[in-house]
Amino acid sequence: MRALFVGFLLLAASPVTAAEKYVGGNTDVRTVLAFKAADAAIQKVLPQEWEPDVAASGPAKDINLRVTFIDRLFAQDAEGKTLPSARIVTLGIPARKKGSEGRGTMLFLIYTSGESGGPYGVSIKADTKMEREVEIDPAGKAAVEESWQFKAPDGNAIELEIKYARGPLKSGKAESLLYSAAKPSFYRIYRYEQLEDAVREAGADRVQKIVFKASGPKLSPLFDGSEQLIGVTSVPSYTRQTYLPGS
Question: Which of 155, 75, 152 is nearest to 116 (CA)?
């Protein structure tokens, strides 16, 4: 049975500067895979003048690539119009612009059940399939099983099968900047609130099964067998507001 998650009410407005422009909001269910991929392959997909911004310690240590599977449950534009739901997978690199304060996540590839292009100019419409099951035993312990498939007309494909035991959820609020590899001067500001469960991290692993496959001309150089899966985070509730920076 597909799990249903509460969270359709968008966040109340966060403090913003007068120059920022609100462009919409959404509520998702997410699963995030954190990898250490080959440095040369990562640098190749970054724009010139940008470099990986990899943590030397802490939970994000050595992570230079995140693959985020997104089940978009609800979205609105700036005028409050409801937008279609979508299944999305994004590939992003923690990055910084050399010699400047610019840093954030560089999105270089997105596959979506929606339209190609998108605000970042890197979205490709793909055939998608997603299933999620949640089984809760009499003691209240939950096991989650997910299956994701993205097949794009450019010959690339991503698949994920995962099963994990649900642990205690942590809540948090944060702000992030996401840049476009197709137009590096463009970025959007995300202010979000989420519930997360680190099902695989240093010293803990509740993943019972995982099969990840990425193939095709754009993906094979990054996933050539040398990549290491460092962490897995389940985000059963993610709600955000999106802004464009002031000029």
Answer: 152
